[in-house]
Amino acid sequence: MESGLSRCYRHPDVETGIRCTRCEKPICPECMISASVGFQCPDCVRTGSGTGHAAGANQPRTIAGGRVAADGRFVTKILIGINLALFIAVLVAGDRLVDELALIGYAYSPALGEVVGVADGEYYRLLTSTVLHQEIPHFVFNMLGLWIIGGQVEPELGRRRFAFLCLISGLSGSTLAYLVAAPNQPSLGASGIVFGLIGAFAVLARRRRYDMRPVALFVGLALLLTFTREGISWEAHVGGLVGGALVTFALVHAPRERRRLVQYGSCVLILALDLGIVLARSAALV
């Protein structure tokens, strides 16, 4: 039965009886920004239409408590730029750069003439491998994933929290690959981050109370492709998916009174878990 209330212009699933005092668009409690008289919407505050009190002391916030930015793909663009720069470097330098930056647990590299890998102390490979590509189709597919899904997730979390999400997703994907894959099996690509964004998107859709059936279908198809295509590091995909979902759940469900403590504390706990797995695996390999 319909209540007759309007729905928030930013959150169509939320009914509200409050409107922006400037543009009169309906806004929910999450979008309300205190003004000298009544409340204003994030758009009016962002464009400077609001009062000095609203525009200064009360910044519009995302569902996770981050600041609403004019450019919702700022961090996404930086991440794609890093991937592009490294891809060009690989095209110029060739396989030598790939040998130095790809995720390898523990192996002898004929190209370098020495033992290499994370277990040999090259922990940077856990991160460099997440922005490293060697083939054009692989690069293009992952960049499209970052652009499309990142463009949906970043505005919902805010820049800083989105950056933490990408970092932990990539590291969690590398950690599971390091734990399960053969020590001498190389792995590279931003797929762990992309699947972390997929996990984040699913959590956000559930938090917004959207219809989860198309979301579940999307996640299911992504996993189906993961396990049916040859040459795919399913470990990085699954690790990124789980890591991204856990981080996002903590970000959007943290209580308001201790929001930052719970959010960043959860990120630190997941990072500590990844580190513990990496150290235990290294001890087993050496």
Automatic annotation (TrEMBL):
EC nos: 3.4.21.-
Gene3D superfamilies recorded: Rhomboid-like
Protein's membrane topology: Multi-pass membrane protein
Top-level enzyme category: hydrolase
Pfam family, one: Rhomboid
GO MF term set: peptidase activity
Residue ranges of the TM segments: 74-93, 131-150, 162-181, 187-205, 212-228, 234-252, 264-284
Subcellular location(s) per record: Membrane
Residue span, Peptidase S54 rhomboid domain: 121-252
SUPFAM superfamilies: Rhomboid-like
GO BP annotation list: proteolysis
UniProt keywords, alphabetically: Hydrolase, Membrane, Protease, Transmembrane, Transmembrane helix
Database matches in PANTHER family: PRESENILIN-ASSOCIATED RHOMBOID-LIKE PROTEIN, MITOCHONDRIAL, RHOMBOID PROTEASE
Family stated for the protein in its record: Belongs to the peptidase S54 family.
Protein name from the UniProt record: Rhomboid family intramembrane serine protease
Organism of this sequence: Streptomyces solicathayae
